[in-house]
Design goal:
Strand content: 25-35%
Strand order of the largest sheet: 1-2-3-4-5
Distance between the termini: 46 Å
Shape: globular
Structural class: alpha+beta
Helix content: 10-25%
Largest sheet: 5 strands, antiparallel
């Protein structure tokens, strides 16, 4: 008996004038928009907003779909004002984490 493979999901960036990146000390807030190909949200548009909080070095990431009310929020540990919040949709979480991993990997290759 073979296990079924999860559908292959890819993202095409349609907005984000600084390319594939997240907010940081040099850019306090940033928005990217992607079109999702494959999976449960095939054809939907994914909006990712990221905010850097210089008071504590916290990166806040919020992701949502345009056409339906589905969202994911994460605030990495920092000061009490910017501590973790409830998560939300796990599929969006995984899409954002994969982007963050790919972004970090690309930055280390360019150093």
């Amino acid at each position: 008996m073979s296990e079924s493979q999860p559908p292959q999901i890819t993202l095409t960036q349609t907005r984000g004038d600084q390319g594939l990146r997240f907010a940081g000390p040099d850019l306090l807030d940033y928005q990217m928009i992607f079109k999702i190909h494959g999976g449960e949200y095939d054809g939907k548009r994914l909006n990712i907003d990221s905010y850097y909080h210089p008071c504590c070095g916290t990166l806040e990431v919020n992701a949502s779909l345009f056409s339906i009310y589905v969202r994911w929020r994460n605030k990495f540990d920092g000061c009490k004002l910017h501590s973790r919040d409830q998560e939300g949709d796990k599929i969006l979480r995984d899409l954002v984490w994969n982007l963050m991993i790919n972004t970090t990997h690309a930055e280390t290759e360019n150093e």
